[in-house]
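seq as requested:
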Amino acid sequence: MMIQSRCKFKLKRRYRSRLGRDIATCLTYTTLVIGLVLMQYDYVSAFEPDFVFPLENVTVAQGRDATFTCVVNNLGGYRVAWIKADAKAILAIHEHVITNNGRLSVTHNDFNTWTLNIKSVKMEDRGQYMCQVNTDPMKMQTAFLEVVIPPDIVYEETSGDMMVPEGGSAKLVCKARGYPKPKITWKREDGREIIARTGPHGKTKSHQVEGEMLSLTKITRSEMGAYLCIASNSVPPSVSKRMKVQVHFHPLIQVPNQLVGAPLLTDVTLICNVEASPKAINYWQRENGEMIISNDRYLMSEIENSMYAVQMTLVLRKTQKSDFGGYKCISKNSIGDAEGTIRLYEMELHKKKQNRYNNYDDISGSNDEDNEAIRSEDQNDESIFGSNGRLFKDAQSNLINSSKASTSNFLLIVSFMSTVFSVILSKLLSITL
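struct tokens:
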């Protein structure tokens, strides 16, 4: 219409002689306008919006932040929208958030990058998200938000510490939650193997067992200790719970040396090894029932070798005559009691052989080599004492004693013969006279 009006205006102001030239000018102007419109159409169709990079999937732990980035070139007058695809809910258009979720926001770098931000991600945020451009037909790209949850022990459904009689059974249960579903692994705190008994005689040993339940059958005292339930699902951190298994049995006493000898005025140690669970009361008694109290002459102590094994020791200092006799080590717990007996006897120390001379330096007619030989002989005599305080007779000492006995017998025989000879001689003299 504008073109037509312009043409009429020109016809009114010009003479008809110039009609041909005005018609030509009008046609030229109309051609120019149509050409510009066609050029504009070709420009728009040649530079439609397009995505530069694909929308990437995001995996994030619950409680952390997640972002989706959409890069669009040649957006022109079109708009970018964010949509929760699985719920078919519009989240934002351009820079305006449509949803009421205050944890969502959209940012734009004033060029070609659009970012959807989700703060403190929850499990309900998991799903498929879409970046859409309102072209005709619509252009879009999608990505998935995976929300993972670190493992957590469900304490109300998990076993605690337990007590089991020896030979009985124990079932430990461990429940955990998280996403993906956590895997449960059992280990012993001390690193020892877990024993699984599958039949009357069959059993398997392994350092770890998988599954929510751990079954211990025909349990022994060696299986007593702490067991760890470890939950993991590739989302750090893994978590664990400690469960203590207490195996109960009556005391058992083992005595390494039931007969101990010691000389007077020496120190001697009596030992008893005790196994008991629950923990036992341990003490010492004399054979007459008198309880021994720790003092400056009697020292009692206990050394723990394991959860159920204890070594009892009684040290007697400078033993006296009254110390020799029987001793009892006694152990009592809530299940039963046991005792062990040790007999302490006196060892007689033989006097060391006196040196041939009181002073090695005063030996007359002997040189240094002779003195050294004498010292060596005396040192050999002293070696008859054992490391355990017992006195052992040397073979040389036995030989000397045997020689002395033979000499004594010979002298008795000679003396008897002399007496007989004297009697006979006196008889003969009396007869002759």
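Residues 324 and 414 are 47 Å apart (CA to CA).
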